[in-house]
Design a protein that fits this description.
single chain; about 350 residues
Length: about 350
């Protein structure tokens, strides 16, 4: 019989957050603004999702005061500062963000600076809506902070809104979500509840993503993936991340590689490095994928759903590897297996060209 997730010692803190799941976020959003006791909502989107923002503003009726369609990847501080001026001009008293992690990032950055509440309507599987984490960039440098004031108070999940996610983002954003949960399973500060959510999140995405990438996906499949993404994001918001996230932050920050795609390529390699040290915690992941090891299962799964498997396809070159290694091994995050520079160099070299993961 498989062991339970019991731990002899742990700490668990739940965060206050209202989560509403199902179709019809647009029909519900005005009621949610009213429930917060607010009356002047500013809609936040990227330029690419401006039309979704315009539809949401219309749905808010008299409770919507405007639309800021300026969200960008990595939350540039100058964009946030310009948006704060818009908030002040319009006398907005809350934010309604509709989009992926970049849009949620701008909403969080505005909440931090203004103290105003947020309703987030996620349209990708990034999971930022469930975390108190904010990454921001200024002068080409990305810094990350954790602050309960940036955790959105309300999340509205609407299956209809993820259906428009471009196919490559379905796959990569899904792998990004799985990565949060996998790292949560061996986090130093994990607890039985975070592990429970992590495993269920991985199960949901492992089941849903192949259905989303082949044939004619149904609302049930989109819903199952979004449910998995919520669980995985909640894990990210609860426990510390390790080597995998460190590598992705180094590559994303140092070389501007795309966020979700980088997670998709790196995950099987980072897990292969860590797995010998935490094979007990990762055994359930291997079982989910019907594989001898979690890393092999993740690699097979990524290949099957058409995820990128080479950093070279994302724009990294062999000449970048020495600097990537320096960034990846500087200020290491806590990791279950000590970081050995030569081994990380080999890992990055394999990930560059898509060679099979190795311990
Ligand atoms: P993204 O938000 O940058 O979205 C990529 C593009 O896809 C954008 O143009 C966006 O408008 C568009 N898009 C998103 N959903 C869509 C949909 N349903 N239909 C059509 N277009 C859609 O990408 P992402 O992967 O969701 O988020 C990545 C960002 O989120 C990174 O900056 C990352 O650092 C951050 N992030 C933060 C946390 C956290 O906890 N702070 C967690 C995960 C990710």
């Amino acid at each position: 019989m498989t062991a339970s997730l019991f731990l002899p010692e742990f700490a668990y803190a739940s965060a206050p957050q209202r989560v509403v799941f199902g179709l019809g976020a647009q029909e519900r959003v005005a009621a949610e603004v009213a429930m917060l006791g607010r009356a002047r909502a500013l809609v936040v989107t990227t330029p690419e999702q401006a039309s979704a923002g315009a539809a949401l503003l219309a749905a808010l009726g008299p409770l919507g005061v405007g639309h800021c369609a300026e969200a960008r990847m990595h939350t540039p501080v100058d964009v946030t500062e310009a948006a704060v001026a818009v908030v002040q001009d319009l006398k907005a008293d809350c934010f309604v963000a509709i989009g992926g992690g970049s849009t949620t990032g701008l909403s969080k950055a505005l909440a931090l600076r203004t103290g105003l509440p947020q309703i987030v309507i996620p349209t990708s599987f990034a999971g930022s809506e469930a975390t108190p984490i904010l990454g921001q960039t200024e002068g080409g440098r990305k810094t990350t902070l954790t602050d309960p004031r940036v955790r959105p108070g309300v999340i509205l999940y609407d299956v209809a809104l993820v259906r428009t996610l471009p196919p490559h983002l379905v796959v990569c954003s899904g792998m990004n979500a799985i990565a949060h949960a996998v790292e949560g399973l061996y986090a130093r500060d994990r607890n039985p509840i975070s592990s429970l959510m992590a495993l269920e999140g991985i199960r949901a995405l492992a089941h849903a993503l192949p259905n989303l990438t082949s044939g004619a996906p149904q609302d049930h499949d989109w819903g199952e993936a979004l449910y998995g993404a919520w669980l995985c994001g909640t894990v990210l918001g609860q426990v510390g991340m390790a080597l995998h996230h460190k590598l992705c932050h180094a590559l994303g920050g140092g070389f501007n590689l795309p966020h979700a795609e980088t997670h998709a390529v790196i995950l099987p390699h980072a897990v292969a490095y860590i797995e010998p040290t935490v094979s007990d915690q990762l055994r359930p992941v291997a079982e989910v994928f019907g594989s001898a090891t979690a890393s092999a299962g993740l690699m097979d799964f990524a290949t099957r759903i058409g995820a990128p498997t080479r950093l070279s396809d994302l724009g990294l070159t062999a000449a970048d590897l020495p600097r990537a290694l320096d960034l990846a091994t500087a200020n290491p995050y806590w990791n279950p297996r000590p970081i050995v520079r030569e081994a990380i160099a080999a890992l990055l070299a394999r990930a560059l060209v898509g060679d099979p993961p190795q311990a």
